[in-house]
Amino acid sequence: MGQLNAGIVPVTPFQQNCTILFDTDTRKGVVVDPGGDVGQILAALKDNDIEAGAIWITHGHIDHAGGAMELKEALGGVEIVGPHEADKPLLANLEEQGRRYGIAGARNCTPDRFLAEGETVSFGDHLFEVFHCPGHAPGHVVYYNRAAKFAHVGDVLFRGSIGRTDLPGGDHAALIRSIKEKLLPLGDDIGFLCGHGPGGRFGEERRTNPFLV
User: Fold this and answer.
1) How close are the terminal C-alpha atoms of the chain, in Å?
2) Predicted local distance difference test score (pLDDT) of residue 45
3) Which residues contact 166 (CB under 8 A, 6 or more apart)?
């Protein structure tokens, strides 16, 4: 088994970190949060000789899920997995979100399966545990790889900040609970990638993030 690796393709005017997770040996992987600019995502896969076998979604906001259906078709009908079904209304409203934010080409998204707390998803030998972390969005999920001490946290947590809670379905208290009760206990040495900006480590956020201290 090769190492778990990640590449980022910034998409949409929100500069969302569409993330390609892949195995360094087999070059097989998944695309996390294809919010748009599907041509750029496909080019990144081709240029790096990566075969994406699924699409994983963290939550139902347009910059994370707006390009999922187009990418699914371009990749020959691979499965769209996640988020939690609490985000079903957001995913059914992506085209309207697109009109509101001036993002062309967004399509409403119907995942092949929703995820719940405690489930696992995988590609090759890389297993990820699923945590339901509401607050930024009701159905937000986090993908955690225990072996690699790595989490993809979407818009739950950022370096020095946290996800917005002023959007429909947002809940500040729930978001803080998600971070403090589900993510930080995983350990200070856990590295994370997030939906916008640079990643970091949970320990640094626990010590210095103004929303958590």
Assistant:
1) 39
2) 98
3) none
| pLDDT at 101 (0 to 100) | 86
Quick one: pLDDT at residue 104? 86
**Which parts of the chain sit beneath pLDDT 70?**
none
- Domain membership of residue 44 (yes or no) is yes
* Bridge partners, residue 120, by sequence: 129
Using CA atoms, how far residue 25 sits from 3, 22, 29, 121, in Å, is 7, 9, 11, 19
**Rounded to whole angstroms, how far apart are CA atoms 157 and 136?**
9
What is residue 74's predicted lDDT score, i.e. its pLDDT?
98
Domain assignment present for 213: no
Q: What CATH number does residue 173 fall under?
A: 3.60.15.10
What pLDDT does 122 receive? Answer: 98
Confidence (pTM)? 0.98
Cβ within 8 Å of residue 83, ≥6 positions away: 57, 58, 59, 60, 111, 114, 115, 137, 139, 140, 141
Residue 61 tokens read as: 């906001």
Distance CA 41, CA 106 (A): 15
Q: How far apart are CA 184 and CA 209, in angstroms?
A: 12
pLDDT of residue 1: 74
Instruction: Count the helix, strand and coil residues of the chain and give each as a percent rounded to the nearest 5.
Output: 25, 30, 45
Q: What sign does the dihedral 92-96-102-108 (CA atoms) show?
A: positive
